[in-house]
């Protein structure tokens, strides 16, 4: 009976170590992705060439971000909420459709809000009326990671910015052409405090994936050591 318990412990530990190692390697992959993202962001923000109009811009494999400009009116009634964490505070990225002057419906990620401000009525100053000019970053379509939860469009809860699904969840105004590209707004003078757009300095964006990877690998090592000690103790007791 004691032997069966030891074998059960060994099996449990093997599964646990595999899971912890997988999480560690995933964090290393995320670190590589984040470094590429930040490098592309730095390049776009330091670009001194004239702003491109949204309709003329298209990211490619060599250029992840492009600074663009577009004008139009927000449709605040169709806000969509993308789960996000700023520092240690959970909240949401507010994605609002914009009806552009050239009759396109464009998804604009206006930035982060904490959970307490999710309801539009708690931040009325953010519900800008009339024509606005947005300067932002157009980027390639982001893809979910292996551990990213599934989006829940019926509850307006999004875990990754699936542009096609976001558009499918909207009522498209008659005469407007939906665009499957998302513009991430940059901070602008005179803008409301919330939503808070992406920091203009990439160094302000955390990249802690190496620390997370070390944590998962360390936990795997601890589990191996504990299992070894328990099994050795069990074998001695069986003798």
Describe the structure concisely for a colleague.
The protein has 3 helices and 7 strands, in the order H-E-E-E-E-E-E-H-E-H. It is an alpha+beta fold.
Question: Helices, strands, pairings?
Answer:
Blueprint: H1 2-45, E1 52-53, E2 65-74, E3 80-86, E4 89-100, E5 104-114, E6 132-139, H2 163-168, E7 177-185, H3 209-238
Parallel strand pairs: 1-2, 5-7
Antiparallel strand pairs: 2-4, 2-6, 3-4, 4-5, 6-7
What characteristics describe this protein?
5-stranded mixed barrel, 239 residues, 3 helices
Describe the structure.
33% of the residues lie in helices and 25% in strands. The two termini are 14 Å apart. α1 packs antiparallel against α3. The chain is α+β, with helices and mostly antiparallel strands. Strands 2-4-5-7-6 form a 5-stranded mixed beta barrel. A hairpin with a 3-residue loop joins β4 and β5. It contains 3 helices and 7 strands; from the N terminus they run αββββββαβα.
Mean pLDDT over all positions: 83
What is the 3D shape? elongated
Quaternary organisation: single chain
Q: What portion of residues belong to β-strands?
A: 15-25%
Judged by helices, strands and strand pairing, the structural class is alpha+beta
Helix content: 25-40%
């Amino acid at each position: 009976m004691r032997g069966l318990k030891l074998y059960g412990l060994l099996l449990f530990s093997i599964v646990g170590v595999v899971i912890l190692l997988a999480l560690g390697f995933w964090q290393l992959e995320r670190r590589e992705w984040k470094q590429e993202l930040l490098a592309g962001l730095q390049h776009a923000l330091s670009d001194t060439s004239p702003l491109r109009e949204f309709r003329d811009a298209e990211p490619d494999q060599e250029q992840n971000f492009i600074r663009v400009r577009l004008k139009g009116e927000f449709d605040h009634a169709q806000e969509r909420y993308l789960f996000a964490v700023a520092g240690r505070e959970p909240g949401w990225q507010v994605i609002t459709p914009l009806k552009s002057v050239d009759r396109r419906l464009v998804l604009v990620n206006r930035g982060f809000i904490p959970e307490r401000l999710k309801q539009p009525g708690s931040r009325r100053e953010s519900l800008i009326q009339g024509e606005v000019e947005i300067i932002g970053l157009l980027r390639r379509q982001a893809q979910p990671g292996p551990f990213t939860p599934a989006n829940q469009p019926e509850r307006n809860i999004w875990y990754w910015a699936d542009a096609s699904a976001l558009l499918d969840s909207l009522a498209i105004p008659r005469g407007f052409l939906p665009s499957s590209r998302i513009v991430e707004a940059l901070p602008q003078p005179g803008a409301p405090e919330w939503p808070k757009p992406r920091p203009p300095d990439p160094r302000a964006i955390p990249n802690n994936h190496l620390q997370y990877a070390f944590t998962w690998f360390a936990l795997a090592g601890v589990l191996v050591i504990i299992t070894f000690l328990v099994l050795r103790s069990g074998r001695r007791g069986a003798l």
